[in-house]
Amino acid sequence: MLTLYSFGPGANSLKPMLALYEKGLAFTPHFLNPAVFEHHEGWFKKINPRGQVPALDHDGKIITESTVICEYLEDVFPDVKPLRPKDPYLIAQMRMWTKWVDEYFCWCVSTIGWERAIGPMARAISEEEFEEKMKHIPIPEQVTKWRNARNGFPKEILEEEMRKVRISIARLEARLAESPWLAGPDYTLADICNFAIANGMERGFSDTVNDRDTPHLMDWIRRINDRPAAKEMFAKAKRENLAPRPASATA
Ligand SMILES: N[C@@H](CCC(=O)N[C@@H](CS)C(=O)NCC(=O)O)C(=O)O
């Protein structure tokens, strides 16, 4: 049995969720509400001591880290609609792109998202309540991030992260201008994991991601949104009142 703990189909949570839909694997979705800091509650920290989503429970075995979960699904269910190439060179290409999104692209988009979306959420509660919530966050860097969001990130950090966003977008556009999918001829985890962060940027970062400046990236975003698995995932989330959260709002 598979249970996926997540915030819904956006950012890091979207990676394993879309992989599960693409592979057609039955799973129980368990959505947590970030607005009430549910992911820092004791019951969830027993599942992921880092107090972060996503987390997968497979017959009682817990797997964390969004990209690791995706690779785990490929290892356990290799013959069900594979999302990882067979050729070692193409696997390396795929992992180069998943490593890049995890180590670079995700972070700059995330900081801007925290400034824009988490900041108002963090300011909506009293000082006392905020400090109480901080006590339950297991990762010290995340406490700093929550404090930065509440106070407003320093201007120089926001400028540096925006510079990295522009570099990231240019890199994706250049790759997609020469290849239909990031790792080569086939749709793979490289696309799913980068889409998790890029989807919605045509709205949140429309001066950088748009049909004029990044036509190949826009086409790729549309092609993934048009896939039956993505359509089903977003439609189901909408029915369950879980609006798609772009990475820029939740990472
Ligand atoms: N490296 C982790 C990062 C997970 C992560 O950043 N999750 C975010 C949601 S996308 C989260 O739980 N944020 C809430 C918090 O840290 O308080 C992964 O890829 O799974």
Q: What do these coordinates show?
A:
It is a single chain. The chain is of the alpha+beta class. It folds into 2 domains: about 1-75, Glutaredoxin (3-Layer(aba) Sandwich), CATH 3.40.30.10; about 90-225, Glutathione S-transferase Yfyf (Class Pi), Chain A, domain 2. Helices cover about 60% and strands about 5% of the residues. The chain has 12 helices and 4 strands, in the order E-H-E-H-E-E-H-H-H-H-H-H-H-H-H-H. It has a 4-stranded mixed sheet with strand order 2-1-3-4, with helices on one face. It starts with a strand and ends with a helix. The mean pLDDT is about 95.
Low-confidence stretches: none
Question: What proportion of the residues is helical, as a percent range?
Answer: 55-70%
Largest sheet: 4 strands, mixed
**Total of helices:** 12
Structural class: alpha+beta
Kindly state the number of beta strands: 4
Element-by-element helix/strand order: EHEHEEHHHHHHHHHH
Kindly identify the CATH topology of the largest domain.
Glutathione S-transferase Yfyf (Class Pi), Chain A, domain 2
Would you spell out the secondary-structure blueprint of this structure?
Layout: E1 2-6, H1 11-23, E2 28-31, H2 42-47, E3 55-58, E4 61-64, H3 66-76, H4 88-123, H5 127-134, H6 140-151, H7 155-178, H8 189-198, H9 201-204, H10 215-225, H11 228-239, H12 247-250
Parallel strand pairs: 1-2
Antiparallel strand pairs: 1-3, 3-4
Bound molecules: glutathione.
